Amino acid sequence: MCWNNRLMDVKEANWFQLAKSMSMIKKMNVLDLPFLFAPSCLYILILRCDQLTMPLAKVQFYLQFEQTMCHSIVIQHKTTSSIPNVGLQVWSTALMLADFVLHTIFTSSDFNDAIVLELGAGTGLVGILLARVARSVYLTDIDEEILENCSTNVHLNSKMYLHGESSIHVRELNWNNSWPPEVHCCDDPSLRTKYSWSLSEIQEVEGALVLLAADVIYSDDLTHSFFDTVGKLMEQGSRKVLYLCLEKRYNFSLDELDVVANGYSHFRKYFIDEEDYNSTNGSIMPCFIGRRIDISQIPQFIPEYSRGEDLELWKIHRFH
Ligand SMILES: C[S@@+](CC[C@H](N)C(=O)[O-])C[C@H]1O[C@@H](n2cnc3c(N)ncnc32)[C@H](O)[C@@H]1O
Q1: 118 and 231 fall within a common domain
Q2: Residue closest to 187 by CA, chosen among 165, 212, 204
Q3: Residue 237 burial (CB count, 10 A)
Q4: 33-37, 61-65, 292-296: which range is least confident on average?
Q5: Which of 83, 124, 129, 182 could make a disulfide contact with 150, Cβ separation 3.0–4.6 Å?
Q6: 47: domain range?
Q7: 132 and 37 share a domain?
Q8: Are residue 65 and residue 119 in the same domain, yes or no?
Q9: 218 CA: nearest ligand 1 atom
């Protein structure tokens, strides 16, 4: 099966009927479903559930590929969260990274058969989309509840993965403990804890080409641990690239008596912008190099977030 990128003669009304006839939607209120007719015959519906009666809302993305087939991507998530469980919510940056992943899938074979690791995956949306074409996807995070919810989302979408559900792994990876994570001594799945790593999985990830992360830049200490982990991952095995989507957040600073994006300035110290590379004259440089991706070139398939100036997407490598 492959994603179909051709224009098709399907009227929005027909599509709406098709969606309504799907049993999962029938159980829910479909009266005010916003939906999008995207130029590449990709259809995405975001279904809003009654947030008062459901502790976790489900966002459904209906993706149509091929003439008659329709896949829904169901993401169970919270609509609000506090700092310890931010990973239960879908953040705008994840939606933007999802748009980038969809666009790349539709326009290139860059992610085909890839091994991918997502850091701070939260609900797992981005990695779940990628598993449509990738060989193996690792969704990593911390905290039992977040990993459990991510795991549920992986299962909810099990029909969609190119290589089946066993090709998508939810694993614990705490940046404060860097890389590699502690290995469970045995590769026998029955003897391992649910989110622990086996040696063969660590080896597979070290051969990955793609790392992903969305909305992981919000505390200077965490940013440091994050880049430490990414650096260690990039030191091992194949040459990897990190696609990182972030939101620039502004706070009032008493020191500067101004509204500033200090977290963002701290983040920018970890790598050099490709554009400034030639003007460094051999001065001390960070060990990463980055290029900002022009998101205006990426169609917005998912309408449920606004792409303000503060959302950025970076492609980051390590100097070798
Ligand atoms: C703002 S959420 C973003 C979640 C998801 N990527 C998204 O954009 O919807 C930040 C994520 O980083 C994870 N995180 C925070 N501290 C971490 C750490 N020390 N190691 C690994 N993940 C961490 C959180 O659990 C959470 O899932």
Answers
A1: yes
A2: 204
A3: 16
A4: 33-37
A5: 124
A6: 8-80
A7: no
A8: no
A9: 1
